[in-house]
């Protein structure tokens, strides 16, 4: 069943509609919300939403509960290949929780927040931007870690990044929902404007496992991977010192040592290597530059440092 959760009049007799699809079966009222499309250039979640919805359709008898799929919170951004909301140059994920008596965007965000609130778990799926590629990961804040970490470990991701609370903006959908008592996991994976099918497949298995653990799914699931958890670790940031074209020598998940040669910045005009990029610390690469054109200060990689004492999480 498709429902419209917000409808706002636009110019030339058009309407902005935010829609969700509800799939319900059995007697349980346990509810999982799968949310994506907050940023118009993040498309990984579109394919994940399709995978989850189509699989449940074919196996509806195995569902005992409610799955709400929100495939496009920012449909105008997706239509125009724009990260924010067109015309307003506004990041939708900086407007939550919104208000019922505000601007068009605030009204829409308020309706979205109210509709998702009350879910047992919400999975908020994002991609990186066009510049960086992210290993499948879940990001949660320190204050919510105790509650959310057990759910994050069910999701078949490679990495759980626990942020200091100061880095989590209060105007995001996830912060708003968690503040209201709706457990919300933020997934980051892949790269902007692209679909990485292997990552979507990985998260698809994670969603099924989460549903199984919530008692919503009676079908079989595959064993999920144990994620690396960032608690007690530092993250090293590798930035370019010069402008040029970045050519990586390392890949996601690679374990490197401080000083390892992980890539070059080259100058096509002079045919010279203008910077030999080195790892700033020991650890695992979990973010890597995808768009090769760089300038001084451009982020090239993030490296998760080992646990103090050398023990893994």
Automatic annotation (TrEMBL):
A family per Pfam: AstE_AspA_cat
UniProt keyword annotation of Calcium present: no
CDD domains: M14_ASTE_ASPA-like (cd06253)
InterPro entries referenced in this protein's UniProt entry, alphabetically: AstE_AspA_cat, N-alpha-Ac-DABA_deacetylase
Domain Succinylglutamate desuccinylase/Aspartoacylase catalytic: 30-212
Molecular function terms, GO-annotated: hydrolase activity, acting on ester bonds; metal ion binding
UniProt keyword list: Hydrolase, Metal-binding, Zinc
Necessary cofactors: Zn(2+)
Domain of life of the source: Bacteria
Regions annotated as coiled coil: none
Presence of keyword Hydrolase: yes
Name the UniProt record assigns to this protein: Succinylglutamate desuccinylase/aspartoacylase family protein
